[in-house]
Design goal:
- It holds the Pfam family ABC2_membrane_4.
- This is ABC-2 family transporter protein.
- Keywords: Membrane, Transmembrane, Transmembrane helix.
- It comes from Microbacterium azadirachtae.
- It is a single chain.
- With 273 residues, the protein is an all-alpha fold.
- It has 11 helices and no strands.
- α4 runs parallel beside α7 and α6 runs antiparallel to α11.
- It has a domain of 182 residues.
- The longest helix is centred in the middle third of the chain and has 36 residues.
């Protein structure tokens, strides 16, 4: 007779996996990557540097005295820094696929939807808070520069300073989530970055080519208003002449996030790691 191996008693673990622990795990992975802090440093340098240059340009041309809102100097760099936010979101996901860490992640937490939501939440909150700090610093410096010419930012008017800063920070978080979505759907660093750059930067430029194509191609320009960065511009600095209201712009940004995360969830559930 063959010996029967003795049964190993099951040991009840002291800790159980929960969503807060998944969040903590994702934060550890994000914060221990040097690429994260390099990306934030470059984003901060561009945000503050470009804002300062635009502020000096405003003072030399008298643009603020001619009715130009000084907060534009602070939020204008987002056309470039949003790309960095999207790329950071993409590499935060594809880096796990390239190293094979995604297998460990999904083994530790088999609930793939929870993994997706935890990673998306950590990146969104991190980018929002980091971007808000950058924009506030840039706003203080810009206000000081403009204030020397009697045109400081109107901090007492929330719709002229605070709301644009919050909207710009939210846009950075949205772009990061778009990068996360492409990362999960494509699982390739090069592919996810290319798709993110294409959506955030290339498509808006290409749509401008149709401005001279006549009335029959006007639908392209109308559709381009619903691209993420185009909608973000209307959300950050709404105006009566804008192609969409701030409410519609925020709904558009939310729709991009929802569609991207839904697609990521479907792909994550249907494919092996």
């Amino acid at each position: 007779m063959s010996a029967v191996a003795p049964a190993v008693p099951a040991v009840s673990g002291r800790f159980r996996l929960s969503f807060p622990r998944s969040l903590r795990s994702e934060w550890i992975k994000l914060s221990t990557l040097r690429s994260t802090w390099w990306s934030i440093a470059i984003t901060a340098a561009l945000t503050i540097g470009i804002a300062v240059l635009i502020a000096f340009a405003f003072t030399s041309t008298g643009a603020v005295r001619q009715g130009v809102n000084g907060i534009m100097a602070v939020v204008s760099p987002i056309q470039f820094t949003a790309l960095l936010a999207g790329i950071l979101g993409a590499i935060a996901v594809t880096g796990e696929y390239s190293t094979g860490m995604i297998r460990s992640t999904l083994t530790a937490d088999p609930l793939r939807g929870r993994v997706l939501v935890a990673k998306a939440a950590v990146l969104a909150v991190f980018l929002f808070l980091a971007s808000l700090v950058m924009f506030v610093i840039a706003a203080v410096i810009v206000s000081t520069i403009l204030g020397a010419h009697g045109e400081a930012l109107e901090w007492g008017a929330p719709d002229k300073v605070l709301l644009p800063l919050l909207s710009a920070a939210a846009t950075m978080a949205v772009c990061a989530l778009i990068g996360v979505s492409f990362g999960f759907m494509l699982r390739s660093g090069a592919g996810a970055i290319a798709a993110t750059v294409g959506l955030l930067f290339v498509l808006p430029i290409m749509s401008n080519f149709f401005a001279f194509a006549g009335e029959s191609w006007k639908w392209v320009l109308d559709a381009a208003n619903y691209l993420p960065l185009s909608a973000a511009q209307n959300a950050i600095l709404p105006s009566d002449t804008a192609p969409m209201s701030a409410g519609v712009a925020f709904l558009t940004l939310g729709a991009w996030v929802a569609a991207g995360l839904l697609g990521s969830w479907v792909v994550l559930r249907s494919r092996d790691a």
